[in-house]
Amino acid sequence: MDKLKVEFLISAMNQKDFSIVKKSNIKSDALLINQTDYEEKSEIQMDDCTLRRISTQERGLSKSRNLAIENALGDICVICDDDFFYNEESNGMIEKAYRDNPEADVVVFAYHSKGQSEKSFFAKKKKLGYLNALRVSSCQITFRRKSIKQHGIKFNEDFGSGSLLYKSGEEHLFLFECLKKNLAIHFDPSYLLTVDFSGASTWFNGFDKKFFYDRGAIFTALSNKYSWLLILQFAIRKYRLYSSTFTFFQAVQEMWKGRNDYLGGGKDGSTNKQCPS
């Protein structure tokens, strides 16, 4: 059986070389999307691995992800940022997951946290649907390049760190798009990496008005029909975390405002082109 080629798609900024690959303990092919102040392409061989770098003046995490997908060459692609550190056996774990689940188009893994409490994961392998996909972080996502490319799936560039509109939610929109196009998403309980959350977040500044506004837009982009239910469940589930600064009604009100502005174009000038019914 032919070996599956695993390629790590790294999103970073202002990188002068390929040292981030070693820093992340990546021991496979990698494509680095380097958002900086110039345009350039380069490629080197290191330890029998092909490392490529595309430097671009574009900004935004989702734009970086899409550029990586457009230029990826691996059979299996791994979403990667500059604060990830992979296990020694990560390549083998990824390849085994796809060998064991040939029908899987996307496999999400568990991860350890540095700088915050450990996140809980499912104990066993399972297939994920829409609700479970909401629990997934971008650091967990791997996918078959062929499946994503064939179905024209991309990250929504209105969402994600660095976007001019909404600062998060891009991974959930990506996974929902996969599910809408009948791709199979599997969870593997293997711990693939450690994520460093000790630094300042590029998008989360606490439970403020902008946070709730963006959540309302995200839930509406995920599902116009059920956005109200997603807003209510979020307000209930996270109440303990925001109750010192917002009432339940205020949180719902801000999310509803984000929902309505997303649907109507609103003050941000966003559109409803990708909002499912």
From TrEMBL:
InterPro entries: Glyco_trans_2-like, Nucleotide-diphossugar_trans. Pfam families: Glycos_transf_2 (PF00535). Gene3D superfamilies: Spore Coat Polysaccharide Biosynthesis Protein SpsA, Chain A (3.90.550.10). Residues 54-124 form the Glycosyltransferase 2-like domain. This is Glycosyltransferase family 2 protein. It comes from Planococcus liqunii.
